[in-house]
Amino acid sequence: MPTTTTSPARTHPRRRRATGAPPFLVGWGAIAGLVALVPLVYLVVRSLDAGPGAFLEVLGRPRTGELILRSLALAGAVTAACMVIGFLGAWLVVRTDLPGRRAAGVLLALPLAVPSYVAGFTWISEAPGLAGFWGAFGVLVSVSFPYVFLPVVGALRATDTGLEEVARSLGHGPARVLLGVTLRQVWPAATAGGLLVALYILSDFGAVSLMRYDTFTLGIYTSYRGTFNRTPAAVLGCVLVVLAALITWGEARARGRAAQLVGRGVPRQAAATRLGRWRPAWAGFVGLVIAVSLGVPAYSLTHWMVVGSSLGVDLPDLGDAGLVTLQAAAAGAIVTTVLAIPVGVLAARYRGRATATLETATYVGHALPGITVGLALVFLGVRVLPGIYQELPLLVFGYAVLFLPLAVGAVRTAVVAAPPRLEEVSRSLGHSRFVTLARVTLPLAAPGVGAGAALVFLTIAKELPATLMLRPTGADTLAVRLWSYTGVGQYAAAAPYAVLLVLLAAIPTLVLNRAFREHDRALRAQEKEDR
Amino acid sequence: MSLRTHSAVLRWIGAAAVTASLAAVAGCGGGTPAAAPADGAALTIYSGRSENLVGPLLDRLEKAVGVDVEVRYGSTGEMAAQLLEEGADSPADVFFGQDAGALGALSGAGLLAPLPADVIAPAAAKYRATDSTWVATSARARVVTYNPDLVPAADLPRSLDDLLDPKWKGRIGYAPSNASWLSFVTGLRLIRGEDGARQWLTAFAAQNPQRFDGNGAILDAVAAGTLPAGLVNHYYLYEKTSEVDPAGYKARNHYVPNDPLGLVNVAGAGVVEASDNKEAAQRAVAFLLSEEAQQYLVDETGEYPVVEGVTPTRDYDLAPLASLSPPDVNLADLSSLEQTEAMLQQVGLL
């Protein structure tokens, strides 16, 4: 039997207590937990600065409740739309005969590299009438659906198509197979991506501010930028942490109730689903998503370059910024993924209260605005680590705090899909748990882990507020240069930096695709041999 | 063996990571300028003003002061927050900010060291902090930006109370989280008192003013014709029209003299108390008040000088500073921002 469906009840034997986890994994995960705790400690210290009275005063402000509801409404709507687009996009690219699916696989990941303030600016300058909820919704969906797309692609590639074939052979229609089998298979990956979207929307200020839809972050930014008082910002940050914890908990419940499917370890990619007469319609759907998410910014950038007088590309500067970005994003992606592995493995294999808490702790950083996490690291850096303050290591540390959940979710989802039986075989052959992790679990989970690293890379490349505070003096990333030009209205000069940012973002996606193709080839050769 | 095929993915990822790291190392050599010299004499400037505006000026400053200068660029608000967080351990020597409120907040937290009298002497008295902890380097006026196609000249407000007329309902823009808007409200409180200010703000809120991300966004909306008018700083117009054809950019500045709407705010600089190089830092601030620096600021940004006798050599459609007759507000008092924020919360404008 190629796959095993296990109901939640049946997964319990795998849910050993956290105490059963190997000590090296617990220690390694604890480091990740400590990293994630930095902003929490900072927020608590800062928000109680002015005494509990000030804390309650900020919470009791008339607009606080209203702004929470506005943020949640936006986060809910954007998350739902991203899950639909991300899932359908991934399914079309991985499982069907969609024309141009290889190119679509790359193009659908790229919008993640478009900073929300760039997307927001391009939308509002082309269509000022869009301002408000729907404008903010459109911009945020267009830049964040890859949070769902990438992990679901990873999950689809790692799971077996056998069950879908069985369903089809039983006479189920394509829609029923898609929703009843495929969606259920990748549901954990999709909800993990949706969680990232929801938390990101809570933290965003750039797009909502440009689209003139007030959310909870308005109070935080007014506090930093307008009144130079960090206490209200910290109190509001605590509220975001609580919201993030609740949403993370809710996602775990939603994920846990879904039936989980365990692959047998060798995903077999059957013949692509034929889209038949719906093929043009699906191609049109993918084309539309790409046109809106990449086409609109591309059109706007071209427009800036044509009408702007500030155009004059400083190639050495552009190259330097590109290399600094590559350096920071690559280092950040590697460190973040390494920290995420134990958390993801613990969450997948040793489910318990302690691991659930650890996992939640790593997620809250993603709901906090970059400026808050940046200040938390300033707080830590100048006091505890002055030697690396405003040096690359602390910047990378900051990226890990901000983007740990991107990799944690990917690792967990991939490990859940890997059959524990193979690990048991490895253990029974006398391999240590570390060797088993390194030689069985992680190779099985590689597609998902790689997708997580790519997600981190893309997101770091465009990060701005924490980068501004923590970067080594003079080391400007593409996002910093972009901000520097757009801040004074020099859009034409800014455009090449935006273009390079998106091009750079194609690298991890192309590398992953290449890896998967090689993987598939090796698999096909293997199957021939087996026969 | 199936695991072998899986490890193909890992191999690729590993190869990619190595490639990226190599590129990163190369970037390290080529991308970042040399670090500070070992003698520790380098001066670190935190600039809340944009590199594209003041970068060349700070290059000249480096020559004039005669020490290596490292500049970190950021937004004034974010940089002020960073300095507040760094406190006594800050690596910064000089703070160069966009707004009197930020300078006042840093000064209030004891993070700025008093400047010697001869350093700040060139600036007119109203452009210095009462306790000499910072000095203005340029001045900017609050103006009403408007689209002449949508607002006839006769309808332009002569005072802020004119904005309470029903004809402005829903037709005026402001930037709620912007520091210069908050400074304007603080100025209003100082001029009209708490009750007077609350009264005006309540009536203004009832006018359903349109909220924007910042001054630039307001100007773009006015130029595009989607917003008739907005409350901004005067020099944003010059920033915009240096990028696009001024004839096609339909936003104009309307000055409102003798009125809180016409408040004059400043950008300024101070020496950081934590600096271990205060003497050089003071020379840096002195340079910003030199005729050379003042001329640069006036010419490149369309702002007003804080030193007598400097006039722009470029053709900005600028109202003369003398004609502005701004309200009489002590700039240092613009730091009472918490009360301003509380009031704006109360009337629902935040």
CATH architecture of chain A: Orthogonal Bundle
Q: In the CATH hierarchy, what is the architecture of the largest domain in chain B at level 2?
A: 3-Layer(aba) Sandwich
CATH topology annotation of chain A? MetI-like fold
Give the total of domains of chain A.
Answer: 1
Tally of separate domains of chain B: 2
Your description of this structure?
Chain A has helices at 23-47, 51-59, 62-95, 101-107, 116-126, 133-144, 146-158, 162-169, 174-203, 206-210, 217-226, 230-257, 279-307, 315-349, 353-364, 370-384, 392-417, 420-428, 433-462, 465-470, 478-486, 491-530, and strands spanning 4-6, 260-262. Chain A is mainly α. Chain A has a single domain, classed as MetI-like (MetI-like fold, Orthogonal Bundle). A two-stranded antiparallel sheet of chain A has the order 1-2. In chain A, helix 1 (23-47) packs across helix 16 (370-384). Chain A is globular, with a radius of gyration of 23 Å. The relative contact order of chain A is 0.15. With 350 residues, chain B is an alpha/beta fold. Chain B folds into two domains: 43-139 and 266-319, Periplasmic binding protein-like II (D-Maltodextrin-Binding Protein, domain 2, 3-Layer(aba) Sandwich); 140-263 and 335-347, 3-Layer(aba) Sandwich (D-Maltodextrin-Binding Protein, domain 2), CATH 3.40.190. In chain B, 43% of the residues lie in helices and 14% in strands. Chain B contains twelve helices and ten strands. The N and C termini of chain B lie far apart (63 Å). In chain B, 54% of the residues are buried. The interface between A and B is large, with 91 and 87 residues.
Per-chain topology:
The complex is a heterodimer of chains A (531) and B (350).
Chain A: E1 4-6, H1 23-47, H2 51-59, H3 62-95, H4 101-107, H5 116-126, H6 133-144, H7 146-158, H8 162-169, H9 174-203, H10 206-210, H11 217-226, H12 230-257, E2 260-262, H13 279-307, H14 315-349, H15 353-364, H16 370-384, H17 392-417, H18 420-428, H19 433-462, H20 465-470, H21 478-486, H22 491-530
Helix pairs in contact in A: 1-12, 1-14, 1-15, 1-16, 1-17, 2-12, 3-4, 3-6, 3-7, 3-9, 4-22, 5-6, 5-13, 6-13, 7-9, 7-17, 7-19, 8-9, 9-12, 9-17, 11-12, 12-15, 13-22, 14-15, 14-17, 14-19, 14-22, 15-17, 16-17, 17-19, 18-19, 19-22, 21-22
Chain B: H1 2-31, E1 43-47, H2 51-65, E2 69-73, H3 76-86, E3 94-97, H4 100-108, E4 112-113, H5 117-120, E5 135-146, E6 172-174, H6 179-206, E7 210-211, H7 215-224, E8 229-233, H8 236-243, E9 252-254, E10 264-272, H9 278-288, H10 291-301, H11 321-324, H12 337-347
Parallel strand pairs in B: 1-2, 1-3, 6-7, 6-8
Antiparallel strand pairs in B: 3-10, 4-10, 5-8, 5-9, 5-10
Helix pairs in contact in B: 2-9, 2-10, 3-4, 6-12
